[in-house]
Amino acid sequence: MYITREIEAEIEPFLKRKEVISIIGPRQAGKTTYIKHLEEKLTAKGKKVKFLTFEKRGDLELFQNSIEDFKSLASQYDFVIIDEFQYAKEGGQKLKYLYDTTGIKFIVTGSSSLDLTFQTGKYMVGRMFNFEILPFSFREYLSATDAELYGLIISRLPSFLLEDFKISQGFGEEINKRLTKRLEEYVVFGGYPAVVLSEAEPEKIKTLESIVDKFLLKDIRSLLKLATEDELIKLQKFMAAQIGNLIKYEELSGASGLAYKELLKHLSILEKTYVIELIRPFYTNKRTELVKNPKNYFIDLGLRNYILNDFRKLAMRNDMGAVMENQALNSLKKNYHFPVKYWRTKSKAEVDFVIESGEKPIPIEVKYSSKRTIGKSLYSFIEKFEPEKAIILTRDLLAEEKIKNCKILFVPLSYL
Prior knowledge:
Helix content: 40-55%
Shape: globular
Radius of gyration: 22 Å
Number of helices: 19
Distance between the termini: 24 Å
Mean pLDDT: 92
C-alpha cells in the first residue's frame, strides 16, 4: 500500500523545471518508495524514465568511471532518477557537467551525507532544489491507519497554518477525542513507515531496532570515524531524556565522556543525520540570538523512545509534557519553511515556540491538557512584543479569548 506523502504537492511544480531535484532525509523514511511511485506516475504520462541506484555496482561504476558513456545512456530519457547518490565520488562535479551539457531532468536521492560528506550542493548552486522526506507526519500516519479520520481532517483543514486558523474550522468533542487517541498512539512508536505499517507492538520495536542499529548507527559511526560508539550511545540516551531542555555543553560533556570539540562534532552529525533537532532562541537582536544555547528535540519520537527503551502509553508516563512539546515542534517544522524558535529571558520566563510568519511574531505554548490555562510567561511575551495572535496547543480543548489586543487560540495539537 502506497501512502501519499505531503511533500509530493511541493515537489510537483518543480518537475517541469530543468533544475535537479534532490531528495534527502534519514534512511528508511520512504525516499526510495516515493521515487519508485514517481517513476510509475511519469511513465504513465508517457515520459521516458531511467531508474538507477548507486547501491548497484554497475550503475555506480558507469557514472564514476565513464561519465561520457553515462551521458550517452542517460540522453535517451526525459527523466533520470538516481537513488543513493551519496555513494558517488565527485558526484557533485559530474552532476553539474551533466546538467550543463544535457536537457535531462535529474532527480537524485540520498541520506543526509549527500550534502554532508560529498558536498554536492556547492557544485549545484542555482541548479538544484532540495526537499526532505522525513518519517511519517501525524497526518501521514492517519492516512495509513485511519482513512476516515484522515479524510475528515484533510477536508476541513487541508493545510494548517496557525495564523489563518479560525475556531469555526474545528471539530466537535467526539472527533477531537478520536484524533487525540490516534495522536497519543503515534508518539509512542513514531513515524518511520515500516514501524507504522507493522501490526503488533513486538514487531514495531524489532523494526525500530533494525533502523537504529543497521542504518542510523552505521551512518553515524562512518561519518564520525568512531573506534567505539560508547560515547555516542551515552550522548543519545542523555539527550533522549532531556527533550525540550536547553543544551548545557558542560553537562553533556560530562554525561557522554566527550571533550567539548568532540561533543560539538557529535551534535552536528546527530543533527545532520536527522536524529536530533536543535532550535535557537528568538531575539530581536540577531547577534544575541547566535550566542545563546539551543534546545534539544528528536526528529522521530519512536526513535527517541527506543533509545530510552520506554514504550509505555502516554497516560502512564511522567514525560508526557516533553513528548507532546517535541511532537508540536515536529508538526510546526512540517508546516513552516522557516526556523521555529523559542523565547527565554534571563529571569527564566519562557515560551515554548515562536514563529515569525508576518510582521508580528506568534508565540506558541504547549499545554497538553483539556483545561484553559495561560501561563505567566505568555503574558510577559504579549506585554513585550504585542503579537496579534497567540496559540496554546491543548489535548482536546478548542476555545479562544483575548488579552489586550492579542487573540489567544486554544487548538488541539492533533490538528497540526
